[in-house]
Specification:
homodimer, 398 residues, Arc Repressor Mutant, subunit A, Nucleotidyltransferase, domain 5, 3 domains, five-stranded mixed β-sheet, 15 strands, 39% helix, DNA-binding
DNA sequence: AGGGTTTGTTTTGTCGTGCAACTTATATCC
DNA sequence: GGATATAAGTTGCACGACAAAACAAACCCT
């Protein structure tokens, strides 16, 4: 519990002003910020001047087609572009990704390679990722300051120590990715934050850009990769739980007498709605392309339709329990589940309507995330930038 | 998003000092508070003086058997006793309760009556509760200021409007308890906060007194009344969800092909581990006393043991899902589940160890709440007092 | 009795904000 | 085209809250 000195007051108000500018739909003037924060214009002016001088905010040329109101025209403010950025990395089972995102949410540079990493050696994968990162960093514009880096991983992560405890789909155990990436990031003295892929993708869904909020701000996110990862977002924040392992919806029990799961339990959701389970139930090969299942369903293939329906039913049962416990009536399907999202959602919504206690008052809804294999990388970068939004004073000279 | 003026700085530090004093195990001196908050002694002194003058804190006579260190002896500080209090009310299926709790966590006055309210008329029950409340308020010591009131209800509550949407076990629908209690509370101009019984009981379990924290601060609470209510506590705060309906663990699905539940779904936890389900599985009458089941198990009655085991298994399955999703490896059994807690916990822990993905790193544990039928009333009072702890400036003259 | 030690108070200085007056830049009206 | 209205942004001053340091108080120990 930190105390409040006068300086922290200024820090807090700098953060408040920054956040207000970033959160706004259209670039606000100093006066708009003053009105929104209930600070006085004089105070806002002083804070904004500092933030502009420090390169956090930018003054935009007033738009020509403006409203044309009487009075002195406003100076619109936005997040600076290209001055501060963060590096987002991702290791998936089938790809590596590196992205450089700036304070305005713009992707300054990006590299994505598809490569099968199942059963791979961590050190070589990290070396490859390191070279991707280095190339992306080299593309940063002149005068761009990289303030943080994050890495999205498909497994159980210990956020505190930056350790990947277990990633069954990669076959990795107890890896510290930071050491393998030091080379590429060493020169920048960047602390690498690691996080769960689903958690970070969910964060990216809730926040299109640093400090900006998307609707909804409360939802359950399901990320279908090989298994089914998940995340719970409350008020725009990812609920990571006591140790950072929250969101393992893939291993919620659908039927205690169901098929055994590789986690050691039985009847887990993953055994009903995982990628492998859905494909084999539809009579497709494991190596089938994602579009194949969708095509069959749209063609009216009975077996494929049954496969999707039963996956939807299992998802509904698992999510029904989650919604009952958390009262978060929005579910977002991401990853490979997004690709068959339209097919799944009717069945999922039907089961939810029946199984959720409060469905009578608020109907649970299913939303579908945009199909971005590197959403976790974006989320990792956004979380690093969020640190800057929270403490803008740290990057100001003062 | 509130701005920060200088006054709010003082408010925040008043709150910080108050919380520091209340949270301390033993009454701290001004110097202790300064050390804990990293404020200076001079600042703490001024703030404490104000709080003592306002009746929020009290100076205690230094203990005779003190440590006997050199230097000027300290003046220990504690929460004031009997100056500020809040009224906690509870309507259960089998009882009504009213409690007056002060800032030190002491119960100043209390009334509890056992009465069967299943299928009762809300208005008459509220009238009875009102008279209980009036009698408890009359017992308040001289000079005691009642700063808030709360009501714990066994059902779905809309916290914003103070409305009870549905309490199936009472047979109540769409009741606004505040209007029925105006008479008893009207003279005090108290805003009545309503809340879910399990949420408030869970809060009371996490906080033995206002501003004080109990271990654990993160847990899933199960409240067995007639049905099974629940609550999720994160970092000492009850997670109420988007609409305040979180925690309905009783209707998590154990088996989609299981018996129908009165909620309209099938195979809900309540059908396996509810009071009725457990008693009938054990071959006992619905009206059996709670101790009866326990007695039979301890006597080695096979049917009773089976009933408890199968309830424990169902609890384990439901809680396993919750722990996987929330990463909160502590479960607290309250209400009638607490009475058979020692019998249930071995089976529940065994199932959790098997079904929780992260059990390998952190073993999920079951704890048992103290048996207090009016724990919800205490929680309601504590939450009202928490408001004072958060904004002590509001009750100071300044 | 006197030095040492820790608590609590007083005094002075610094810093950030609010307030109000002022300047700047545009639109509108006659 | 000039006067006026309107709103944005700036400047100077006062207030309030905290920090720092010196001081007073109360107790232990030798």
């Amino acid at each position: 519990m930190a105390n409040l000195r006068q300086a922290s007051l200024r820090h807090a108000n700098l953060a408040l002003v920054t956040r207000t500018v970033l959160a706004a739909e259209t670039p606000p003037s100093r006066a708009d910020v003053a009105a929104a924060t209930s600070l006085t214009r004089s105070t806002v002016s002083r804070l904004v001047d500092e933030l502009v001088a420090g390169g956090v905010l930018e003054e935009v040329e007033s738009v020509v087609g403006g409203p044309g109101r009487p009075g002195r025209p406003a100076t619109p403010l936005t997040a600076s572009r290209g001055h501060f950025a963060a590096l987002g990395l991702q290791i998936g089972v089938g790809h590596l990704a590196a992205r450089l995102v700036d304070l305005s949410g713009t992707v300054l540079a990006e590299r994505l390679v598809n490569v099968d990493l199942a059963g791979s050696k961590p050190s070589s994968a990290l070396r490859r990722l390191g070279s991707l990162a280095a190339r992306v960093l080299a593309e940063a514009p002149e005068g761009c300051r990289v303030v943080g880096a994050g890495l999205a991983l498909p497994g159980l992560v210990d956020v505190g120590s930056g350790r990947l405890l277990s990633a069954p789909n990669l076959g990795w155990e107890d890896v510290v990715p930071g050491t393998g990436l030091e080379e590429a990031l060493g020169g920048l003295e960047l602390k690498l934050r690691v996080g769960n892929e689903a958690d970070l993708a969910a964060y990216a869904f809730a926040h299109p850009a640093p400090g900006r909020d998307n609707e909804p701000q409360d939802f359950v996110y399901l990320s279908g990769e090989v298994g089914i990862g998940g995340a719970v977002v409350l008020d725009g924040e990812v609920m990571t739980g006591r140790h950072g392992w929250a969101g393992e919806i893939g291993h919620v029990c659908i039927d205690p007498d169901g098929p055994p799961c590789r986690c050691g339990s039985t009847g887990c959701l993953e055994q009903y709605a995982g990628r492998l389970a859905m494909l084999s139930a539809a009579g497709l090969d494991v190596a089938a392309i994602d579009g194949e299942l969708r095509g069959r369903v749209e063609a009216g293939d009975e077996q494929a339709c049954d496969a999707v329906r039963s996956a939807g039913r299992a998802l509904g049962i698992a999510l029904g329990g989650v919604v009952n416990v958390l009262d978060i009536p929005t579910v977002v399907l991401g990853g490979h589940l997004a690709q068959v999202g339209e097919l799944l959602s009717p069945e999922v919504e039907a089961v939810l309507a029946r199984r959720v206690l409060s469905a009578h008052w608020v109907t649970p809804r299913v939303a579908i995330a945009p199909d971005d294999p590197a959403a976790g990388a974006t989320g990792a970068a956004l979380i690093a930038l969020e640190e800057l939004v929270r403490h803008p004073a740290d990057v100001l000279g003062t």
